[in-house]
Amino acid sequence: MHSRREASAAPFSHASAAVLWGLPLFRHVPEAVHVSDARHNGVVRHARGVARHEVSVPDDDIVVIGGIPCTSLERTVFDVARTLPLASAVAVADAALRLVAWDPEDRVYDQGAASTWATAMEERIARARGARGIRQARWIMAFADGRAQLPGESMSRLLLHDLGFATPRLQVRLADSSHLYFVDFGLDDAKAWGEFDGEGKYTDAQFRGERTPWEVVRAEKEREDWIRATTHRPLVRWGMQHLASPVTLGRRLAEFGIRPPR
Questions:
Q1: Cα(121)–Cα(96) distance, rounded to whole angstroms?
Q2: CB–CB of 184/153 below 8 Å?
Q3: How far is CA 155 from the centre of its chain?
Q4: Which residues pair with 237 in a beta bridge?
Q5: H helix runs in 128-245, sequence order
Q6: Tens digit of each residue's pLDDT (9 = 90 or more) over 194-249
Q7: Is 65 helix (H, G, I), strand (E, B) or coil?
Q8: Is residue 4's pLDDT more than 50?
Q9: What's the rounded Cα separation, in Å, for the pair 143 and 157?
Q10: What is the pTM of this model?
């Protein structure tokens, strides 16, 4: 597809740019490759598997990744936040903030970097008042959090919000002199902990390293026992099968006596 459009200066954009940036397209399968140019502002034309957004893209909103021109991270999130379904767009915004502010080595979130980037995005959104999807984009940027590690955690955040839980703490650090653990969700209003379990934690060598699946399960059990005994809070796990709807996740939490305060 790239060879068919090399003669054009139009950069890849929207979901296609998100792919180039390594951002997850959670529950969204693009039907076309997206590019943007400035022929007729606001029109989207589809031809031969290409969706051409005829909108202006300034030079400082164009970067090159692997030799391929695409929209900048900020412009990509701006476009996606306005045009993709809410869950897909939140996963993209969370992942973009993670690129900006998360240090994977030290597991530290640079709140200053995150705030600076979010403010720039808010200013961009404010300048586009009245554009298609701008209300959703504004909500998403206020909701986005780069501490969400996986798209399933982003979706979990949305469903917890819909269920009426207070904003959870993410990647909560729990430690004593001999232990250091991180928990995905601190559900403080329910005095509980939550964990989203992607299947890769137990099966993907990238996540489990040299350990066998059984060794991973045993280490997780020891970790959970320590967290429960130390914090005196329940810990509930859920997986992708529980993210079908707020009701589905709510039922999973209720099995452990965890409900949003009324």
A1: 11
A2: yes
A3: 8
A4: 195
A5: 134-143, 151-163, 200-203, 205-208, 213-231
A6: 999 876 555 555 555 667 777 888 888 999 999 999 999 999 999 999 999 999 99
A7: strand
A8: no
A9: 9
A10: 0.87
Characterise 133 by phi-psi region: left (phi > 0), alpha (psi -120 to 50), beta (else). Answer: left
Torsion angle of the four alpha carbons 114, 193, 202, 148, in this order, in degrees rounded to the nearest 10: -10
Cβ atoms of 114 and 99 closer than 8 Å: no
**What is the pLDDT at residue 3?**
40
Number of CB atoms found within 10 A of residue 87's CB: 18
**Beta pairing class for 192-196 and 235-238:** parallel
d(CA 163, CA 248) in angstroms, rounded, equals 10
Beta bridge pairs of residue 44: 53
Ordered strands of the 192-196 beta sheet = 169-175, 180-187, 192-196, 235-238
Beta carbons within 10 angstroms of residue 127's beta carbon: 9
Spatial CB neighbours of 54, under 8 Å, sequence gap ≥ 6: 36, 37, 38, 39, 40, 41, 42, 43, 44, 45
> HSE-up of 74 (CA within 13 Å, CB side)?
16
Cα separation, 57 vs 13, in Å, equals 10
What does the block give as tokens for 130?
């009245």
